[in-house]
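FAQ

Q: What does a record look like?
A: Structure on top, sequence underneath. For example:
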């Protein structure tokens, strides 16, 4: 049966707060205000410099004359990247910090204020901090720390945050994007960052007829429910039989559901949170971000000409192709730097703006990924299929095609 089962892994991530309602207080706050927050369930503690242990989700800073300066507040925010900062101060004083609010994740609250308003602002800041911490966890991988969605473009940051929020809310996900863009990688990382002790299973819908899809989903759902808050992943979900209702089954058994599709022009079915992963070529800054992440373990850098070449390339195979090109350049690089000649990109084809055989190019990329997976698993096809995130039937079919085409 073309399903991939993944065993639990130790939870990833940054140091999380011991409680989602932990708040460290900096400066002299109104005692009645603090008493009301404590009554409402907030765990308030005085700020201690270099305190050991987990950081709080929120720092509550009272900006009074003689307490702290703006520079000290901004330094505090820099030193606690996992925390949101709620800044209490008179309106005329807050104007000085307004220009820093977006970049430094400062939430500005003018005084005097009511306990209800401040509690609402703390809750909002706490929610943002925990979502961003979870989104950051999706960047962590074994080894180099690079991944298909490594980057800081607006599109990718929005995708990480939306997916994290939907996952925490228990909403089923429908992730669409081109081949090699990292759809499965992103879903798996968010799952592991959230519930590191829960397994997940992948079902390749393209390899099953409708009746087999139904039985595979039912069996996987029961197994995941028995092991805890598992994740059911439906690969190539555009081939899912429209009569099936996996959302209802997932909710009935209390498990998470995620589907991904290469069909960019296909609208997500009703009931899913649809997240679209844009092609890598539309995110030139992320091209460099991901490239540097791949090169860092090898202690290599890009020269300016190579960086421009990478950013101008169309990347029909997205991150899968970028990884192949950069790792090939690592083997040929000399002197600690990657030069254009090391990248070996087809710039003539690129300059013409024509895509002669896109499907053939993607097939080559898939074949390269399969060969690397088999090499890294000493030829074990079951392990290679798990590493690739595909069913064994899919791998065997692709190997037969590669054998006929002389690609093995």
């Amino acid at each position: 049966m073309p399903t991939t089962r993944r065993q639990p892994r130790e939870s990833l991530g940054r140091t999380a707060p011991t409680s989602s309602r932990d708040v460290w207080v900096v400066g002299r706050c109104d005692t009645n205000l603090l008493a009301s927050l404590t009554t409402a369930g907030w765990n308030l503690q005085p700020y201690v410099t270099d305190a050991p242990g987990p950081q709080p989700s929120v720092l509550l800073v009272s900006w009074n004359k003689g307490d702290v300066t703006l520079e000290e507040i901004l330094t505090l925010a820099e030193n606690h990247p996992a925390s949101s900062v709620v800044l209490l101060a008179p309106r005329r004083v807050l104007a000085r910090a307004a220009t820093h609010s977006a970049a430094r994740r400062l939430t500005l609250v003018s005084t005097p204020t009511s306990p209800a308003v401040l509690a609402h602002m703390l809750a909002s800041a706490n929610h943002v901090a925990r979502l961003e911490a979870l989104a950051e966890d999706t960047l962590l991988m074994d080894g180099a720390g690079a991944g298909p969605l490594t980057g800081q473009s607006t599109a990718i940051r929005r995708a990480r945050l939306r997916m994290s929020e939907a996952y925490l809310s228990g909403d089923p996900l429908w992730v669409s994007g081109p081949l090699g863009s990292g759809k499965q990688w992103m879903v798996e990382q968010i799952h592991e960052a959230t519930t590191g002790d829960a397994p997940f299973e992948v079902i390749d819908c393209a390899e099953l007829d409708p009746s087999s899809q139904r039985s595979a989903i039912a069996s996987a759902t029961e197994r995941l429910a028995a092991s805890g808050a598992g994740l059911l992943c439906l690969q190539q979900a555009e081939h899912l039989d429209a009569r099936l209702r996996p959302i209802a089954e997932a909710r009935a058994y209390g498990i998470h559901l995620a589907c991904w599709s290469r069909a960019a022009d296909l609208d997500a079915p009703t009931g899913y949170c649809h997240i679209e992963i844009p092609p890598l070529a539309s995110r030139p800054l992320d091209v460099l971000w991901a490239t540097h992440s791949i090169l860092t373990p090898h202690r290599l850098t890009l020269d300016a000409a190579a960086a421009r070449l990478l950013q101008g390339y169309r990347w029909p195979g997205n991150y899968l192709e970028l990884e192949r090109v950069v790792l090939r350049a690592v083997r040929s690089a000399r002197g600690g730097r990657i030069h254009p000649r090391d990248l070996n990109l087809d710039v003539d084809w690129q300059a013409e703006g024509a895509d002669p055989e896109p499907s053939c190019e993607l097939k080559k990329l898939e074949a390269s990924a399969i060969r690397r997976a088999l090499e890294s698993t000493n030829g074990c096809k079951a392990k290679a299929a798990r590493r690739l995130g595909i069913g064994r039937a899919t791998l065997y079919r692709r190997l037969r095609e590669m054998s006929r085409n002389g690609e093995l």
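Q: Is there anything notable about this one?
A: The radius of gyration is 24 Å.
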